[in-house]
């Protein structure tokens, strides 16, 4: 059962790669689970992928609870990770606990929060209170205003050293996984070697213990430009649009329904 975090720790020790994909609803959660993906992430990227927002900042805790619930209903085997949305956890460890408990009640097995050193105290607080936590470092999209765009991180020696320190401190504080987004491959590989917990990468090369991508990028359902590191395995938008125009044509031509 990939739901058990011990499975992930064992996979890291044995050098087996783990797989994760985002999911935002019941049908796609079922498909990801049946496909044998090890974990689904109810990402706050749902703000962009299903709600049409320009970034993840508008996503609310209520939205995350709702999507976590409908995803969890479709999962029998995979680990369910849910993002703590912007504004729901940064104020204090107590605020983070209240938000995390709501996501676990909605069906999450583990919560993910964005941030490095400033989140160490919160990760420790949650970890001591029954909340498994994944720390998300590197490009943290909730910091987009501060970062000035979705830009790759950890490019200077100083920035790289800080990310290594952050990862070690977060794992020491009790983080059960570390997710790294849009950082150099060599840096992600080094962090993976040095932290005792499984790492997951997105746009961070092939040296991490696992990989995650956004579902709509993988299926070709993202109407906007996908990041360069994403790989499309299906022309979903084309297939869906063709099917829908065929349906409309058949109705207009009195071909459907028959009789
Ligand atoms: N569809 C989608 N897939 C994603 O994986 C994703 C999102 N959206 N939105 C939220 C974040 C942002 N993502 C990104 C986006 C761009 C880069 C990137 O490599 N940017 C280039 C160009 C930046 C610019 O033009 O300003 C870079 O070199 O930094 C990385 C991660 C990943 N996440
Ligand atoms: C891109 C992944 C890591 C994420 O945080 C999300 O989908 O919200
Ligand atoms: Mg996210």
From TrEMBL:
Keyword Metal-binding recorded: yes
Reactions it catalyzes = (6R)-5,10-methylene-5,6,7,8-tetrahydrofolate + 3-methyl-2-oxobutanoate + H2O = 2-dehydropantoate + (6S)-5,6,7,8-tetrahydrofolate
Q: Name one GO biological process term.
A: methylation
EC class of this enzyme?
A: transferase
Cofactor(s) needed: Mg(2+)
Q: Write out the GO cellular component annotations.
A: cytoplasm
Keywords assigned by UniProt, alphabetized: Cytoplasm, Magnesium, Metal-binding, Methyltransferase, Pantothenate biosynthesis, Transferase
Q: In which pathway does it act?
A: Cofactor biosynthesis; (R)-pantothenate biosynthesis; (R)-pantoate from 3-methyl-2-oxobutanoate: step 1/2
Enumerate the SUPFAM superfamilies for this protein. Phosphoenolpyruvate/pyruvate domain
Q: Name the InterPro entries for this protein.
A: Pantoate_hydroxy_MeTrfase (IPR003700), Pyrv/PenolPyrv_kinase-like_dom (IPR015813), Pyrv_kinase-like_dom_sf (IPR040442)
TM stretches of this protein: none
Query: Keyword Cytoplasm: yes or no?
Result: yes
Enzyme Commission number: 2.1.2.11
The positions annotated for binding 3-methyl-2-oxobutanoate are: 44-45, 83, 112
Note on cofactor = Binds 1 Mg(2+) ion per subunit.
Residues the entry annotates as binding Mg(2+): 44, 83, 114
Where is it chiefly localized?
cytoplasm
What residues form the catalytic site here?
A: 181 (proton acceptor)
Q: Which GO terms describe its molecular function?
A: 3-methyl-2-oxobutanoate hydroxymethyltransferase activity; magnesium ion binding; methyltransferase activity
- Protein family membership: Belongs to the PanB family.
Subunit-level organization: Homodecamer; pentamer of dimers.
What is the purpose of this protein? Answer: Catalyzes the reversible reaction in which hydroxymethyl group from 5,10-methylenetetrahydrofolate is transferred onto alpha-ketoisovalerate to form ketopantoate.
Return the protein name: 3-methyl-2-oxobutanoate hydroxymethyltransferase
Q: Identify the species of origin.
A: Acidocella aromatica
Taxonomic lineage of the native organism: Bacteria, Pseudomonadati, Pseudomonadota, Alphaproteobacteria, Acetobacterales
